[in-house]
Amino acid sequence: MSWRSVLLIFIGSLLAASSNAHESRPAYLQLTLTEPNSVEMLFKVPALGDRRFGLYPNMPDNCTAVSPPTSYLIDNAYTDRVTFQCDGGLVGESVAVDGLASTLTDVLVRVTRPDGGTQVTRLTPSATSFVVVATPNAFAVMKTYLAIGFEHILSGIDHLLFILALLILVPGMRTLFWTITAFTAAHSLTLAAATLGFVHVPQPPVEAAIALSIIFVASEIIHVSQGRAGLTQRRPWIVAFTFGLLHGFGFAGALTEVGLPEQAVPLALLFFNVGVELGQLAFVAAVLLSLALLKRVLRDIPEWSPVAAAYGIGIVASYWTIERVVGFW
Q1: In whole angstroms, what is the distance from residue 74 CA to residue 111 CA?
Q2: What pLDDT is attached to residue 301?
Q3: 217 to each of 73, 159, 161, 276, how far by Cα in Å?
Q4: Is residue 1 classed as helix, strand or coil in its secondary structure?
Q5: What is the reported pLDDT for 229?
Q6: What 3-state class would DSSP assign to 80?
Q7: Which stretches in the chain have pLDDT values below 70?
Q8: pLDDT of res. 11
Q9: Is-contact 90 39, C-beta < 8 A?
């Protein structure tokens, strides 16, 4: 039995997860502090069709709404806007999101102060509130961006399918190590370049190109099954590095949505990248460990299973490509 055949099981699990991924999409809360003591709130919460997730910001007692709240549905998310007047300001006060404890989602929070400084944090079902601070400390920045990076890669089904395809194609642990290293180095470069503003690439075409990269490696699996060793099997690090540059722009798009604290840009960028790498390594380790365990349980798996996995990956990636191209065409 080829260990690569067992990856079909992981492909099926990921394809099933991709159809339900929207159920764990994070919400986004933005608080813009202006003078004097005015706070503009924007809250984006995921929706299922026209049904809104039951998440609602809970402002402190010293804050009173001074404008009628507006709400509209766009891109499968409800967006709420309202302006508050907070007597004494918002620094030192606690802001919560009601209903979060009974969900599986997170809330990304961004607070912008009048001087341009920012505070970024992440609320979870087990931590549903936070305190607005004047200046976030270094540990808070590291913890927040490490978690955001780790969560982003593990919720990025397209990135995981690309890595899985590499696992099917790349023979030997040593070659696999250098292939993953090349992928890591490449997307670290473009993540930093795009986030710091040295390179500007429109996000929708990047997302479509990422889907195309998955189709490419899926087709390479089929070529190998037909006795035609493709570039990915002969020079996997070249393919991993090339497409890693592309995937890095995708990571940068996610980080741009969250934003970086102006007082700690290098630190936040570093730990977001570390979080991405830890998530990626955790995924690879989980796959390899599961394969080792499955070898002891499963005896005969059809030799055509890698081809079936390739077609599964290719079909989903083709759907993503069409969907993403239509989205910006």
Answers
A1: 23
A2: 59
A3: 37, 12, 10, 21
A4: coil
A5: 72
A6: strand
A7: 1-25, 298-302
A8: 52
A9: yes
**How far is 70 from 74, CA to CA, in rounded Å?**
13
Quick one: the chain helix, strand, coil %, rounded to 5? 55, 20, 25
Helix (H, G, I), strand (E, B) or coil at 87: coil
The DSSP code for 172 is: S
The answer to whether 151 and 106 have CB atoms below 8 angstroms apart is yes
SS3 42: strand
What per-residue confidence (pLDDT) applies to 299? 64
Q: What are phi and psi of 48, to 5 degrees?
A: -110, 100
Q: Tokens standing for 121?
A: 């944090």
Cis peptide before 36 (omega within 30 of 0): yes
The structure tokens 């969560």 sit at: 151
Amino acid identity for residue 225 in this structure = S
Long-range own/partner contacts, residues 63-69 (CB < 8 A, 24 or more apart): 63/39, 63/87, 63/90, 63/93, 66/38
Q: Any idea how long the chain is?
A: 329
| Confidence (pLDDT) at 302 | 64
**pTM (2 d.p.):** 0.75
DSSP code at position 174: H
Whether the Cβ atoms of residue 70 and residue 87 lie closer than 8 Å to each other: no
Please give the Cα distance from 169 to 176 (Å, whole number): 9
Q: DSSP states of 106-171 as a string? A: -EEEEEE-TTS-EEEEEEBTTB-EEE--SS--HHHHHHHHHHHHHHHHHH-HHHHHHHHHHHHH--
**Torsions phi, psi for 96 (to 5 deg):** -125, 165
- Report DSSP letters for 202-239, one per residue: -HHHHHHHHHHHHHHHHHHHHHHHTT---HHHHSHHHH
